[in-house]
Amino acid sequence: MPDFNKSSSQRYNHYKSLIEQRLASVTDKKLPRGIYEPAEYILAGGGKRIRPLLLILCCEAVGGKSEDALNAAAAIEILHNFTLVHDDIMDNADTRRGRETVHKKWDRDTAILSGDGLIGFAYKFLLLTKSPRIHDIAKSFTTAIIEVCEGQSYDKEFELRKEVSIDEYIMMINKKTSELLKCCAEIGALIGGGTPGEITALKDYALNIGLAFQIQDDMLDITADEKTFGKKTGGDLREGKKTYLLLKALEVVKDPVSRQKLQSVIDNKGVKNENDIPEIKKIYETNGILESCSKAVEDYTTEANSKLDIIKESHAKDMLCWFSGMLLNRTS
Amino acid sequence: MPDFNKSSSQRYNHYKSLIEQRLASVTDKKLPRGIYEPAEYILAGGGKRIRPLLLILCCEAVGGKSEDALNAAAAIEILHNFTLVHDDIMDNADTRRGRETVHKKWDRDTAILSGDGLIGFAYKFLLLTKSPRIHDIAKSFTTAIIEVCEGQSYDKEFELRKEVSIDEYIMMINKKTSELLKCCAEIGALIGGGTPGEITALKDYALNIGLAFQIQDDMLDITADEKTFGKKTGGDLREGKKTYLLLKALEVVKDPVSRQKLQSVIDNKGVKNENDIPEIKKIYETNGILESCSKAVEDYTTEANSKLDIIKESHAKDMLCWFSGMLLNRTS
Fold it and tell me: B153 vs A32: CB contact, 8 Å cut-off?
């Protein structure tokens, strides 16, 4: 049992370690190596484990026990790692969390196949959950997979388009990021025996947290301190990604020289001259783009927290507020 | 309701059309195109639909209704098509069932992502099934995905190995082919309300049918009539595949010249000289390899049919026997 006198960050570390133990058991079986070695590698690659944490907290917030949610929590993290393995192939990414990506360390086919295997392992762990609501739990998980795939498909489609609206961007990150968080909230609350009202509130909380999280991610790429960020800033500009910042700037900035500079990121499929990066950062600053993004992140976070009003007071509820704050104030 | 006076092949066509109608509804939603167009394309690509048929027949054989099994039947076929899309990338295959493969018609990333989407759609349809045994049904489906991925991983691993034993080959095709058929039998029988004894019998039936099917597949590559086969024979030899025939021949053939010819298929990763194909066929014939394979197919089929002894007499049971015969006598 967790010690409720512990601070939220101590409890976070406690849950993180439980989740990682469970993840380590996914690859207890070792053969064939072509599936289990890459799976073990990606699952041991660290990360904040925010999705499984959210699932556990939502279970507790409606009166459930964290132990009952642990297999489903592992399932969500496995599913998330499947998306990383396949997305890294599509993005031709060489590194992830400071280590080689699976398709780089092994090869393309191994990454495709071990990614597929991870989906199987995810359902296997999900279905270890003992709950009279297992049918709804499995349906929620399945909806999340479909949404995440759709989000990734839109993301790839938008890369090729000249114009993407902010609304389309929000729709895409909603599918790519928020739907999985919403699924964490729903499954956690289902396992914990939540009422329909509680389930809806926690899903809405997670949805808004997801949007805040993704826009914050876009901001960090420009504003982060490179040391704590762990990589060079401006990566999204170098890759020509249509981020919330860039799309907002294209909506707001009127000065023709600045507009042309912004448009060139899209037209040239990424910044070609390193000096353009501080220049674009300057455009973001002088036109209030960073402030406007900060405000969007804060608004979504406030909206998220307000959804918790109907949830009974508990340590888990406190920790959900702490969780929003941690994501809002993160530096990497 | 099916008309039970119809002949088995008429009923097969009746079920096939029901399955295809259900499959057409998978892609009712059309966007994003990057997922739904390739999914629609592969699902409309034909094929014998033997997996969903088996699932429906096993449901009926234990007293269930075919309508109740239709969503799960579609789910199995969607899952099978996911494996085709991803396997074709790994095998660098340009065509499938006479049409371009997904990664050829679109591109690698679209094939990866639409394949992933198909797994989501498969679970979505599976979970439309109304059954008090839905938890076991979902577990069986998940086991099948993991087994199929493991089988494909062994298949890729064996391609790189110099030596593979017949036992290893059987283990691999068991995972790659039989486990999915076993899953069809199990899920069908679960939906139909089968007893534990009936479920075990039908799973054993399917497992043996799967082995017969795969060895028959290896044989057809050598013995088929090219017109009905729809492609050139000898493809497995050209690709250097370690088939049941080749492994059996390497076990049995003693003559050094013939042995060297067989070994060269493996050493050179495929036949390089077209004249070698009739020569190897001759080696298979004079050493009784084809007979021995035929016998293995017959033995597995007999074993399969014997498992049906405990199943009550019914049109569905008759049709399961017809089904084994159809697979045994197929020409493509």
Answer: yes
Residue A123 has pLDDT above 70, yes or no: yes
Instruction: State the pairing for strand pair A99-100/B95-96.
Output: unpaired
A264-286: average pLDDT? 93
Q: Nearest by CB to A121, from B117, B120, B146: name it.
A: B146
Determine, yes or no, domain membership for B2.
no
The full DSSP string for B15-84 is HHHHHHHHHHGGG-S--SHHHHHHHHHHHTS----HHHHHHHHHHHHTT--HHHHHHHHHHHHHHHHHHH
Classify residue A330 as exposed, middle or buried by CB count within 10 Å of its CB (0-12, 13-18, 19+).
middle
Chain B hits for A141, Cβ within 8 Å: 123
User: What's B129's domain CATH number?
Assistant: 1.10.600.10
* Distances, alpha carbon A302 to alpha carbons A87, A122, B31, B68, B133, in Å: 31, 32, 32, 46, 42
CB of B240 closer than 8 Å to CB of B268: yes
Residue with tokens 């690859």: A27
Please identify every stretch of chain B with a pLDDT value under 50, giving residue numbers as ranges.
1-5
Question: pLDDT per residue over B194-248, tens digit each?
Answer: 999 999 999 999 999 999 999 999 999 998 888 877 778 898 999 899 999 999 9
Test B156 with A35 for CB contact under 8 angstroms. no
Asked if the structure places residue A106 within a domain, the reply is: yes
CA distance A95 to A104: 8
Band (A4; pLDDT cuts 50, 70, 90): very low
The mean-pLDDT minimum among A186-195, A218-227, B80-89 falls in A218-227
Cβ–Cβ < 8 Å for A69, A190: no
CB contact under 8 A, A120 and B142: yes
Residues 6+ apart with CB under 8 A from A91: none
> Which residues in chain A have their CB less than 8 angstroms from residue B118's CB?
none
- Euclidean distance between CA atoms A67 and A77, whole angstroms: 16
Report the residue of chain A nearest B158, measured CA to CA: A32
Domain count, chain B: 1
CA B92 to chain centre: 19
Which residues are bridge partners to B96 per DSSP? B99
- Give exposure, A222-239, as e/b (b: 16+ Cβ within 10 Å): bbbeeeeeeeebbebbbb
Q: Please state whether beta strands B95-96 and B99-100 pair in parallel, antiparallel, or not at all (unpaired).
A: antiparallel
The answer to whether B133 contacts chain A (CB < 8 Å) is no
Domain containing B233 equals 8-328
B116 falls within a domain = yes
Instruction: Kindly state the DSSP code that residue B162 receives in the 8-state scheme.
Output: S
- Residue A2 predicted with pLDDT over 80: no
Q: To the nearest whole angstrom, how far is the Cα of A24 from the nearest Cα of chain B? A: 17
- Which tokens belong to B330? 């197929």
Q: Do A112 and B90 touch (CB under 8 A)?
A: yes
In a domain, B3, yes or no: no
pLDDT of residue A6: 67
Considering only CA atoms, which of A98, A101, A25 is closest in space to residue A332? A98
pLDDT over 90 percentage in chain A: 86
**A168 to chain B nearest CA, in Å?**
12
